Amino acid sequence: MQESKEAVKRAEAKNFAGGGSIPSVSTVPEPTPIQETTQQKVARQRKNRIEETEKGWEKIQAAMFDLAWMQSPKTQSQSALWKALFTDDTPKEKQQLIKKANTHLNEPVREGEIVVIPTAEPRNTKEKEALSALQEEAKAASTELSKLSDEVLTTVNRHFEVLDHFANESLKQLEADGLPSDYYAYASLGVGVASATVQQHLQNINNVLLEINDLYAAQVAMASKTGGVNYGVFVAQRAELFKKLDGSFAGLSKRSIRLPLYTQVKRNLKLSTKSVIHNADEILESGFVKSLGKRIANVSIGASAAKGVYP
User: Fold this and answer.
1) Which of 20, 96, 119, 198 has the most Cβ atoms closer than 10 angstroms to its Cβ?
2) What is the mean pLDDT of residues 41-68?
3) Please, which residues have CB within 8 angstroms of residue 287's CB and are 6 or more apart in sequence?
4) Greatest CA span in the chain, whole angstroms?
């Protein structure tokens, strides 16, 4: 028995030795947690509070009624318009709300058509009236733009401010006798800053044409006295006047209206960052382009009539 006990001890010693068949198990120490300073903790908590507050505010704003609009930058299908406007983050119910507010759009949507962008369903009389008024403007524009050929449509959009200025001047002349039945009436004639800018460019063009006429008259008078024209001086002066004329014409082709963007609606609805959104007040109240939809309609009617008269 004693020999057996000693044999067991020798076997145990051999098995647990360094070269034995049972490997030794080493314990991996747990990583020491990073200690956060008081300043870091305060900053982290403050950041979390701000993020939670912003999320809550976005939910509140998304539920509130707000109204904006944009113009289609080109002629395109409705599906292409919505694809460019919405993102993957735009809620499906908001997408349906906006589509429902734009039953006036043509298919395809024509360049310059007004797209109505509400953030929620209107809840009271004031909100309902604002939405209805904006849709009325948008429908007027879409109705008349749909009648234009592609060529005339391009002209209307490219030179809208100039054409609108002349349309307003014509409406002033017709105001006393009553507007034609196919024209749209609106309360305030003129487009404010844009109208004044166009008028200034037209006045500049008129002044330069008078200067050119005076230059020719002066040269003719000089030739009758001296028997010839100083072509060097005449050509140089005429070139300067033509340069001034080119500048005034170039000014007419530039958009003088710079409508402010309405980033709040874009942010609340998660719309495309490339979309150009404006506040509805720019059309409905005291904005830059009051009654824009009816202005587009009148310009379209005038351009269409002119196309029929002048090939």
Assistant:
1) 198
2) 76
3) 259, 279, 281
4) 154
